[in-house]
């Protein structure tokens, strides 16, 4: 019941406001116009720059989803690096993996 009363009150307030606006326009008074909001500037969270592109359009992340990600390893490519088949990560061998965690 309270909801209906509240909606009726709001409806009456809006009717009064509409009549005031109609009278103001009829009498030749300018009806206050809302200012257009400026469009938000583009910002890229990856490049940390404005107005060049949006984060979704960043050329840095334009890598295709099927391609293998770039390696950040800068060591000697002939060195054998330990790899864990359980974690699927470099840094330790499968034999020495602490597989208590489930992924």
From TrEMBL:
<dbReference type="InterPro" id="IPR032108">
    <property type="entry name" value="CLIP1_ZNF"/>
</dbReference>
<keyword id="KW-0493">Microtubule</keyword>
<protein>
    <recommendedName>
        <fullName>CLIP1 zinc knuckle domain-containing protein</fullName>
    </recommendedName>
</protein>
<keyword id="KW-0963">Cytoplasm</keyword>
<dbReference type="Pfam" id="PF16641">
    <property type="entry name" value="CLIP1_ZNF"/>
</dbReference>
<feature type="domain" description="CLIP1 zinc knuckle">
    <location>
        <begin position="41"/>
        <end position="58"/>
    </location>
</feature>
<dbReference type="GO" id="GO:0005874">
    <property type="term" value="C:microtubule"/>
</dbReference>
<keyword id="KW-0206">Cytoskeleton</keyword>
<feature type="domain" description="CLIP1 zinc knuckle">
    <location>
        <begin position="81"/>
        <end position="97"/>
    </location>
</feature>
<keyword id="KW-0175">Coiled coil</keyword>
């Amino acid at each position: 019941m309270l909801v209906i009363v509240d909606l009726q009150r709001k409806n009456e307030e809006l009717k009064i406001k509409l009549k005031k606006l109609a009278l103001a326009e009829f009498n030749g008074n300018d009806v206050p116009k809302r200012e257009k909001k400026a469009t938000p500037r583009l910002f890229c969270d990856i490049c940390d720059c404005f107005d060049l592109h949006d984060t979704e359009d960043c050329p840095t992340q334009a890598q295709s989803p099927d391609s293998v990600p770039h390696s950040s390893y800068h060591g000697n490519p002939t060195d054998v690096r330990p790899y864990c088949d359980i974690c699927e990560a470099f840094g330790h061998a499968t034999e020495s993996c602490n597989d208590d965690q489930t992924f």
